[in-house]
Design goal:
Length: 156
């Protein structure tokens, strides 16, 4: 099993960071290799990812969900076996630490070699950096809404 832990500090309130992270359909906008995520119901998602030239589809079950604190999941179908958790730590009124922890089973020579070389860690680091930019930009857009438009958490 491979394990990756990566943190990023984002300049948004904890509720904004958590709310954006749990909008799974937006993952392709900041996660490289994620083609789509569909939320089936409150506890299940369907993923389509591309790793190199290999496309994979799998289902995941949300195993734990505590608003503004953490969300955890595990894969339940397909040929990808992984589990993860994202935690949210309030650093200040407008600052949050987001920590991503992933455990996964590389299959095949290319995935095992990539894991040994730390490519999965680099990927998570790049994805969390893109999440930071993504969520901070969306928060700024919300704060600068047109006169008469609603703004605040959950309105993007």
């Amino acid at each position: 099993m491979s394990r990756v832990i990566e943190s990023v500090d984002v300049n948004v309130p904890i509720s904004t960071a958590y709310s954006q992270w749990t909008r799974f359909e937006s993952f392709p906008q900041f996660m490289d290799g994620v083609e789509s995520v569909s939320q089936i119901d409150d506890h299940h998602t369907r993923w389509v990812i591309t790793i190199g030239s290999v496309q994979r589809e799998f289902d995941a079950e949300i195993t734990e969900r505590h608003a503004d604190e953490r969300i955890a999941w595990k894969s339940t179908g397909g040929d990808t076996r992984h589990a993860g958790m994202v935690t949210f730590q309030r650093l200040g009124d407008n600052d949050t630490r987001v920590t991503v922890q992933l455990t996964w089973q590389p299959t095949g020579l290319v995935e095992r070699a990539g894991s040994l070389l730390g490519i999965d860690g680099h990927q998570v680091r790049d994805d969390t950096a893109r999440f930071k930019k993504f969520v901070e930009q969306r928060a700024a857009e919300t704060e600068a809404s047109w006169p008469g438009e609603e703004s605040g958490p959950g309105r993007y």
